[in-house]
Specification:
This protein is mainly alpha-helical. The protein contains 14 helices and seven strands.
Amino acid sequence: MASTDLPPIMMDHLYSMDDGLKAGGPLLPLEKACEDPVVGDEPLPETISVVDPASVSRCCIEKGLFPAVPLFFQHPCSISKSLSEWVDRELLDPSTCDILHRAQVLEAIFLSKLWDIHIEARMLRHVVRRWSKATHTFVCSWGEFTPTLEDVANIVRLPVCGNRSPFDIALTPAEIDTLAVLRKGAPTSPSTALRFSNWIQHFGNADRQGPWQLAAFVSLWLGRFVLCDFSHDCLHERVFPLALAIVRGDSIPLAPVFLGHLYGLLDQCQILEKNAAGTMGVETLLNSGFLQVFLWEHLKGLDVCPLPYSHALQSADMGNGSFMPGSLPLVCRWFKRMQRKGQNVLRLLDDIERQPLGSLRDLLTPPGQTTAGT
């Protein structure tokens, strides 16, 4: 006789509802707003739900609509020696730096050789579950906040504007030939031809030169750091036309693309958790490194110490003559940082600094120096 016992429900043991977000606030209509809440045919703003609770995972979990299952952040947030060496080698060439500068991605690519962000999984699991699919904002006790184009430009140094639409890239015959080489990938089995490690080993080989090399390099950067959602260890072909446009010096507005991609993956987290229904964990490839730094920049009471300028400069400058920006990008001060253990992070999630990020030069200018124009 078959057993009628139901399988145990998988639960996220890092997750707690004791986070300070209570009924009311931005999630529900204010009670007793006024005696006559209607003016004409429309209610006053105080009587309208700012955020639909059904669009927020945390509210759905609280109501018992689905359980909180483990969320696993699979976006690659560390670097490899072979990747760093390839970045350094490409940025030793002044002509390559000139092309990437015209495309407004030189500093962003420079950062890819240093990108090493420690992920605080417990904090991120709570923050991601406060995301509203309806408003594309995180909900907290006083209202809402969300990553903006300014955050993307400051943290990952992607261009906000450009001269080429990412959705309208015409290729020359020579670029079509290069596209064929990229689609073929590394000379391995078809299932592993676009794997990051094989890609670096094949296209990043200093002894193997060709007209496709820079496009292969930019493709890896795009697929790993900007638009990673197909696999945590594999390129997607959709980045190849973007890479070909960049290596001819076209500037593509990658910051809006990155931000929209992030919003989409945050939406997906709720859908996957709901569909999991307590039977399995959920993996996501949202850029957890960016989200982690965004929170470190905006959570006021969090005890995590950024690197001093001298240490950040030392970790960024390998002393090999490769490209160095005039002032260090903001994110450099968060590489290899960790939060102090034992903090009640849940009580800090509503203590958000809503002011814009400071100037990069103000934040990471060497002591005793002034910036241009000051």
